[in-house]
Design goal:
single chain; alpha/beta; Rossmann fold; 2 domains; eight-stranded mixed beta sheet; five-stranded parallel beta sheet; 19 strands; binds flavin mononucleotide
Length: 409
């Protein structure tokens, strides 16, 4: 039934009589190849015990609890960030009202609000509740907000009455999830640079840096999922390029410079995430430099700035987003670099904190725009690389005037 191989589904269960059907849905999602985690409203736990969902999913269930869970202090962020899609099934009338009004007073609505991925709602309730003006109004709001709604089916209801309100066929829910996950092309092209560069010294040695490529890959993936055509110009990195992106592999800063400039004119935006060497050896020895045990001086010359050169050639309305890794005074230096390069945004980040930086899933960053100065710039904060990617998607969408087809598709 359907193909969700490798997809991560966050299943929100709310308090309705169809909550037990969410157990079957979870199983069928797994059969389709998905990994599933569950969040429950307090009311849902009156219908089905969280232990059932924990056993079926193989993951702790996110429930409202005053007991601190050492597995994750930020489950309301970590669970939606982990997921490729969020499905609330069944979605009670009460929870629909919460989602439509942005309330976040229990786990499922917290996940909904914090989610940056497509969201599918499966309302199920008594027919009169379903037809009621407030529920229909809330559904209209949710549709306009980009939620995918699977309509309940008509028939005999748990309460004994007849009408539209039944939990739909699982095949229909899975097919809606699949279509919600399909990238919707928006006709815009984004070029992302990722990874590091390698500047040869001789045939076996080089100057490089510690960039893993994780941030660039997360960004390429997020833009691809948001319907952009993505060109990924990647230097050497420890990550696998995401499917569905056009990949151009380069090694040195000069190669990356040439690759980016050769594709610049077809792009609506360029994100300069790669850690490009500022300098390269002036002379590359044709043979391995011999070990003479005496002092060796390496003369370096500057590489061209890819961002600065793109800024000179930018076409109207083309967005340029720079990155600056700073180890001291990050905001001051970020603001200076933004002004110097003429970028539209600059992601300033620092590897200083032990928990963030190279090769990790989190980074300490702030996104600066030209209106920022030291008085009003946002402070650097720790966030996941996927969250940073999601923020950039939103900023680019806003700047290019692209309507979201889903909450963050
Ligand atoms: C036995 C029983 C069955 C219920 N079934 C539904 C239902 O199918 N759909 C619904 O929207 N509400 C149903 N409700 C009402 C919800 O449980 C109630 O609105 C609750 O506050 C929902 O909380 P939640 O949205 O936080 O999960 C039912 C209530 C009871 C007592």
């Amino acid at each position: 039934m359907g193909n969700l191989t490798g997809k991560k589904v966050l299943l929100g269960v709310t308090g309705g009589i169809a909550a037990y059907k969410a157990c079957e849905l979870l199983r069928r999602l797994q059969d389709a190849g998905a990994s599933v985690r569950v969040a429950m409203t307090p009311s849902a736990t009156d219908f089905v015990g969280p232990m059932t969902f924990a056993a079926l999913s193989g993951f702790p269930v996110f429930i409202a609890s005053k007991t601190y869970s050492p597995q994750s202090a930020f489950q309301h962020i970590d669970y939606p960030r982990w997921a490729d899609v969020l499905v609330v099934a069944p979605a009670s009338a009460n929870s629909l009202a919460r989602f439509a009004h942005g309330l976040a007073d229990e786990p499922v609505s917290q996940c909904v609000l914090a989610s940056l991925v497509p969201k599918v709602l499966v309302p199920a309730m008594n027919f009169a509740m379903y037809q009621s003006a407030p529920v229909q109004r809330n559904l209209d709001v949710l549709r306009a907000d980009g939620f995918h709604i699977v309509e309940p089916t008509a028939g005999r209801l748990a309460c004994g009455e007849e009408g539209q309100g039944r939990f739909p066929e699982i095949a229909q829910i899975i097919s809606t999830i699949q279509s919600a996950l399909e990238p919707k092309a928006n006709g815009k092209t984004i070029l992302v640079t990722a990874g590091r560069t390698e500047e040869p010294i001789d045939p076996v040695r080089m100057i490089t840096n510690r960039s893993s490529g994780k941030t660039g890959v997360a960004i390429a993936q997020a833009f691809r999922d948001a319907g952009f055509r993505v060109i990924l110009v990647q230097g050497p990195m420890d990550q696998v390029a995401p499917d569905g992106c056009e990949v151009i592999s380069v090694s040195s800063a000069l190669q990356m410079h040439a690759a980016v400039l050769s594709r610049q004119q077809e792009c609506d935006g360029i994100i300069f995430c790669a850690a490009v060497a500022d300098y390269r050896p002036k002379v590359v020895a044709s043979e391995k430099i011999k070990d003479s045990r005496s002092q060796l001086l390496l003369e370096l010359e500057p590489n061209p700035s890819i961002l600065a050169d793109c800024a000179k050639l930018r076409k109207p309305s083309q967005l340029l987003i720079g990155f600056a890794l700073e180890t001291e005074n990050p905001l001051k230096h970020g603001i200076q670099k933004l002004a110097k390069t003429g970028a539209d945004f600059l992601v300033v980040n620092t590897p200083v904190k032990a928990a963030s930086g190279f090769g990790l899933d989190v980074v300490e960053y702030a996104i600066l725009s030209p209106s920022h100065n030291l008085g009003n710039a946002p402070a650097l904060a720790l966030g996941s690389k996927t969250a940073l990617a999601g923020e950039l998607v939103q900023k680019v969408r806003n700047a290019l005037g692209i309507q979201a087809v889903g909450p963050c598709q």
